[in-house]
Amino acid sequence: MTANIIDGKQIAADLRASTKELVTEFINKYNNPPTLAVVLVGEDPASQVYVKTKTKMAKEIGMNVEDHFFEKTVVEKDLLDLIHNLNSNKDVNGILVQLPLPDHIDSRVIIDAIDPAKDVDGFHAINVGRNSIGGDLLKKTFTPCTPLGCYLMLKQHISDLKGMHAVIIGRSNIVGKPMAQLLLEESCTVSIVHSKTKNIEEMTKQGDIVVAAVGRPLMVKKDWIKPGAVVIDVGINRIDDPETGKTKLVGDVDYDGVAEVASAITPVPGGVGPMTIACLLKNTVDAALRQQG
Length: 293
Ligand code: GUN
Fold this sequence. Notes:
CATH topology of the largest domain: Rossmann fold
Structural class: alpha/beta
Order of helices and strands: EHEHEHEHHHEHEHEEEEHEH
Helix content: 40-55%
Number of helices: 10
CATH architecture of the largest domain: 3-Layer(aba) Sandwich
Low-confidence stretches: none
Bound molecules: guanine
Radius of gyration: 19 Å
Oligomer: single chain
């Protein structure tokens, strides 16, 4: 079997196009573009790239982005003051604090200071609770962008997820846990495996769906995958490439091997990455529309 490639780039382009229409309607109706405030602390190169890309994509679809940059020595109070100002600023619809924050800052304190109605990452404890409860509360929350992007890609390939066994590798608050909630809501049987799981390979091999989100380059091998499974690779890892003497981006999945047994697989780059950003833009427009009632 050779896996179908799940084209995250194309699905993200389609989602950005439909979001752009919502942005245009919003501007025509309210004379202001939806606005996202992005907060970046320090100079982590990966975070800088993410923030730059988010800003560029948002502007391309007509949204407004306010970037707020801080030195890595910033104190918690300065960040909280900014968040309080952004919360009360009616022209700001969405707030994103790029993670990770430096160790001396308590991320939970900062995230929970964001108005849940502007928390387009869906990381505020109230929104995490709403995502966990599910049902009608999903209309009042924001689903974290990376798992939402994975979910939308899965839905393009599998019309009915009911009863499928999804194995999620990784238990982070950003991906693993919210991914599990989303798939439970779709009536999947969900297993989360992680670094302390004893038989991670056998567990993973039981998955009809495998979502790899561990940050370990090429960890998931061909013999971890049940033939015909659908594999979503969240990893973005930079490794040395002996062929070119340069570096290259790879996922958590050994793509070439796994593509021989899976029925569908996301590439890295061009899979989950573009979807995460497209979902952030969609969440921001949703926030703006909800704030207008
Ligand atoms: N760092 C890595 N992924 C994310 C994300 O989805 N949102 C934020 N705010 N920071 C991140």
